[in-house]
């Protein structure tokens, strides 16, 4: 064999090797691509378009100008149960003054002041609670859906939830409730990008408002709902959600039962056994720039929100709301502080001027409200999540900071004790 022939053989062998390597790589990537396409069936991105924002004709259409200050009276026009257990009840609310409703963003909440019998037998007392609007904007009424809260398991001395049980047991159709205008920073962001809604238990209420809003206006936005409950007895608005999934190609419903009952059938009543978790999301969702909206029990949120960040979801694409004391530090991560970024140099002293007490803050309390209560100082509170304004007090001296921005805007020179912490020596009118 000549040198030239040898060179030709080597060149052919090299070209063959490159071709085989290329073919194998192409096959592998084609498989992944086909798999992704398969999982995206029904979600052709071309169909994403502007929503038709037309709304039904109403005598008094909701308007931005109709926002009101303080409390306004609403009559309960209808009360219906939404689950088999009759633990979740919807209240339909019409203003008694016949003026237009204030418009709202799907996901926002109303704040109620209720006069209830004090369980300690000290007569009636006002309490304040927030409830998410569970219907889309654009109707002649508001709707909230309230879950009855029992006493903590095993407790013999604590009363069941005051507001939820009062609403279920004592508020009837025709009764009047005092309601503050819609508010809150947790709502569906405008745009056409794909959306993943995750609702755990009663955390489904803002998700239903968002879904109804998007789907009823003809939006072709890709929407997913992952809804976790224990079983069919707790499954809220089951028929409504199934009908939405049946009627809208751009909406996918995934219901998870953590402990199905003997009669609950997988594939009929629910889609997955277990909790909504990252494994399920990874198995189900394609690789897309989703926005995630999460509301549910704190255990679910504490697990899921950091898991989404670890998965690589940008923080500005994760929105969440807690229905109680928020144990998570960040709700809108783009402009919030993490615990180690809190700027106070500890310890600082906090003076409660009205109570005549000065106490040292060492940073171990979650909020000024918790700190005050731990030190025997009584402070009014409602939502305990920065939404209702009940815990607002004026600051005589010093400064506070908010690990997450509150939904309620405190007055100048005041702070919301339930979601704030001192940054230096502080004197409060409490
Ligand atoms: C923005 C927002 C939106 C919300 N949306 C909804 C919604 O759409 N639907 C809904 O159902 N809820 C919603 N909530 C929750 C709601 O506001 C109330 O927190 C909930 O109804 C419980 O209130 P309650 O008065 O019934 O219970 P509470 O009286 O506040 O009691 C809560 C629990 O604490 C126990 N308890 C009482 N005293 C003590 C004590 N001394 N020590 C320890 N435990 C005690 C009670 O037994 C009960 O289990 C929302 C909350 C927020 C902040
Ligand atoms: S208790 Fe509602 S804002 Fe603090």
UniProtKB/TrEMBL annotation:
Domain FAD-binding FR-type per the UniProt entry, residue ranges: 69-189
Residues that span the membrane, as ranges: 6-26
Coiled coil region boundaries: none
Pfam families with a match to the protein in the record: FAD_binding_6, Fer2, NAD_binding_1
Required cofactor(s): heme b; [2Fe-2S] cluster; FAD
PROSITE patterns, A to Z: 2FE2S_FER_1, 2FE2S_FER_2, FAD_FR
Keywords: 2Fe-2S, FAD, Flavoprotein, Heme, Iron, Iron-sulfur, Membrane, Metal-binding, NAD, NADP, Oxidoreductase, Transmembrane, Transmembrane helix
GO molecular function: 2 iron, 2 sulfur cluster binding; flavin adenine dinucleotide binding; metal ion binding; nitric oxide dioxygenase NAD(P)H activity
Enzyme Commission identifier(s): 1.14.12.17
Database matches in InterPro entries: 2Fe-2S_ferredoxin-like_sf (IPR036010), 2Fe-2S_ferredoxin-type (IPR001041), 2Fe2S_fd_BS (IPR006058), Beta-grasp_dom_sf (IPR012675), Cbr1-like_FAD-bd_dom (IPR008333), FAD-bd_FR_type (IPR017927), Flavoprot_Pyr_Nucl_cyt_Rdtase (IPR001709), FNR_nucleotide-bd (IPR039261)
CDD domains referenced in this protein's UniProt entry, alphabetically: fer2 (cd00207), flavohem_like_fad_nad_binding (cd06184)
Superkingdom, taxonomy of origin: Bacteria
The reaction(s) this protein catalyses: 2 nitric oxide + NADH + 2 O2 = 2 nitrate + NAD(+) + H(+); 2 nitric oxide + NADPH + 2 O2 = 2 nitrate + NADP(+) + H(+)
Signal peptide stretch: none
Residue intervals of the 2Fe-2S ferredoxin-type domain: 348-430
SUPFAM superfamilies reported for this sequence: 2Fe-2S ferredoxin-like, Ferredoxin reductase-like, C-terminal NADP-linked domain, Riboflavin synthase domain-like
PANTHER family referenced in this protein's UniProt entry, alphabetically: 1,2-PHENYLACETYL-COA EPOXIDASE, SUBUNIT E, NADH OXIDOREDUCTASE HCR
Family from the record: In the C-terminal section; belongs to the flavoprotein pyridine nucleotide cytochrome reductase family.
Protein name: nitric oxide dioxygenase
Taxonomic source organism: Magnetovibrio blakemorei
